[in-house]
Design goal:
The chain has a two-stranded antiparallel ribbon with strand order 1-2. Helix 1 crosses helix 3 and helix 2 packs across helix 3. By secondary structure, it is mainly alpha-helical. It contains 3 helices and 2 strands.
Length: about 90
């Protein structure tokens, strides 16, 4: 279930660096459930077109998302939303 109200508008003119803004927006899409754990992200070039930014900006945003533990890239297969997400680690059943 996607809560679109939880996803802020993407603002490349805001105070943040553009790649951080892209990373934050994709992170918000993951948190809102629009992008679910295990799902494949669009290709970096497609995301660049979607966000109206350079390909290398999306590549740098992906690096930030990997460092945050939100996505993982499998060579030859693509980039996927991490499963489980980092916030789920503390909620394991005993």
């Amino acid at each position: 279930m996607t809560d679109r109200s939880a996803i802020p508008e993407f603002d490349p003119q805001g105070p943040q660096l553009v790649y951080v803004a892209v990373a934050d927006h994709i992170g918000a899409r993951i948190a809102a459930g629009e992008l679910t754990p295990g799902s494949r992200l669009p290709a970096e070039r497609d995301l660049a077109q979607e966000y109206g930014v350079a390909y290398l900006t999306v590549r740098r945003a992906a690096r930030v998302l990997r460092e945050r533990g939100l996505i993982l890239t499998v060579h030859g297969k693509g980039t996927f939303v991490a499963d489980p997400l980092p916030a789920d680690e503390g909620h394991q059943q005993t």
